[in-house]
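Please, structure for the following, as C-alpha cells.
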Amino acid sequence: MSEGKNKKMNVKQISERLNKENVKKGFEYIRRNGVSRFWTLAKAKAFPAGKSYKEWYEEHCPTKEELMRQREVEFSVQPLISIVVPTYQTPIPFLKDMIDSVRKQSYEKWELCIADGSLNGDENDTKVIRVREELNRYSMEDKRIKVVYLEENQGIAENTNQALALATGEYIGLFDHDDMLTPDALYEIVKAINDYDYDVLYTDEDKISEDSHDYKKPVFKPDYSPELLCANNYITHFFVAKKSIVDRLGGFRKEYDGSQDYDFIFRCVELAKKVGHVSKVLYHWRMHGGSVAGDPTSKMYAYDAGKKAIQSHYERVGIQANVEHMERLGLYHTEYKMIKQPLISVIIYGEDDEKKKRCSEWFKRKDYSNLEILASAGINVEEINALAEKARGSYLFFVSENLESVERDALQQMAGVLQIQNVGAVSGKVIGRKHTVEDVGVVFRTNGDLCKANYGIGDCDYGDMFRAKVMSNYSILSLNCFMTHKNTFEELGRFNKHFSLSFAAADYCLKLRMHGKRCVMQASTVWESKGSMKTGMINDEERERFYEEWQEVLRMGDSYYNSNYAKQGALYILE
C-alpha cells in the first residue's frame, strides 16, 4: 500500500475514534498516566497493523450458500438446544432482533424458552402490553418458542429459573433479552459437541450498537483458563451446558443477581469433565445506556455479586483465598492464604556478582522468611539444574539477577498460586526501566517461534483480555521469575540441557501441560528489571530442535492464543 493511501486510511481511523466516549476516556487516561503514555497508546490504537474488525467481520460472516449447506448437514449427535431468556420490558426492536436471530439459525433443532417478568404491578402498562403482544405473536407463529408470563418481576435469577423450567433440551444456552446470535451459532456449537463431546462450551463475542448496525469491540478469548475466570468473567456469552449438569445445580441463585451467570458458569465448570471453546464470534452483546456493556458503573451491585461468585467458587473447591475488586470494575484480584510456609529455594542466575549480591539482599529484606538462596555463576542450564538438585526447598524459584519485586509479599503471592491443584508453575509480570512490559507470558507459534505476550505496552495498560494486569494461564512462561514444585521438577527430568534458558523453560512448561498441569501468570505480582534480561543466545538450530521435539503440540496451536489472531508477525492483530 502506498504512503498516500496509508495516510488517508490513518486519518479515517482517527476520525472514527474521535467521539464523545473516547475523548472522555482519553482525558481520564491522561489524568492517570500522563501525556507521554497516552500518545504511545493513541498511536498504537490509531494506526493498528492488520485488518480492522469491520473488514475482518465482513469476511468471516457466513454467506447464504454456507448457511444453506449447514442446514443440510446431518450430525451424528443432534441435540435439542434449549435457549433460556428472561425478558423484562424489553424494547420492541431489541426483542424482535433477539427472537429473529434464533429463528434464523442454520441448525434448526432448538427451542426458545422465555419467561417474561415485565408485569410490575400494572397490567395496563403500555410497555407490558407491547412486549406480551409480540411474544404472543411469535409463539403462535413458531411452536419452538415457549413463553411463560410471570405475575410479578422476581429478579433476573428467579425469572431465568422460570424460563429454565420450560426447557426440555439436552443442552441449555444462556441468552440475554437484548442481544443477538449469529445465524451459524447453534450449528458451530453442535459441530463442536459432535467433534469433542463437550459438557460445557463457550464462544467468542463482540458488541453491537444500539441501532444494530455496528459490530465492534470483539472479544477473542483463550481456551478454558481457570485462573483467568477467577479474575474476570471472560466466558460470558455464548455459554452452553449439558442439561444434566444444569439440573444438578438447582438453577440460578437470586443472591447473585447481576452476576448470576458468573456464579452459574463457575458451578457448571466445576462439574464438567470437558470445557470447550468455539473460537468464532457467534454472539452480539448489545450496548446501550442501561447495559453493563455501555456503562460499567450502571450496575455496581453486579460487580459485588461477581466478587461473591468467585469467593463461593473458592470455598466449594477448598481454596483459602480473599477476593478484592481491582481499579477497573469487573476485574478481581485474589490473595491466596498460605496453608503453610514451605521452604523456597531461590536460585539466582546471571553473570554479575554484584547484581546477584544485591538481588540476594533484596530477598532477605522481604516478608517471606523461610527460604534459602543459591546463586549460579552464569546462565548455563546444566549449572542451574545442579543447583536445583542441591536445593532443599519444596518450591524452586528461578530468578534473574536483574529483578526486584515492588511488593513485599511477592514470593508469598506466587507460592500461594502454586498451592492450587494442577498448577505446575507460576510467574510474575516484569516491567522494564522505561515503564513498559518486558514479560507477562509467552505465546508459541506453530513454527516453533516464542513470542512475548503484550510486550512493550505501558505498565498501566491492560493488554489483550486484561491479561497484562490479572492472573491468567499461558502455555509457556519465561524463566525471568519462575516458581515450580521441586518434586515436579525432578519428575520431569529438570531443564533440558540441550536448550538455552528460553527454550529450556518452554520445553519444561510443555512437559507440565502434557502431565495435566497448568502454568499461571500472576500479572498482579510485579517485578522490576534493573538491567537487560539474559537467557542465552537463540539460534535457528535450537529453534529447529525445539520444533522437532514438540511439533505435534505446536501444530495444534497455542491454547491461550485465539486462533483468529495473526499466525505470524505481531501478536493480537487480525489478518
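The chain is about 40% helix and 20% strand. The two ends are 15 Å apart (CA to CA).
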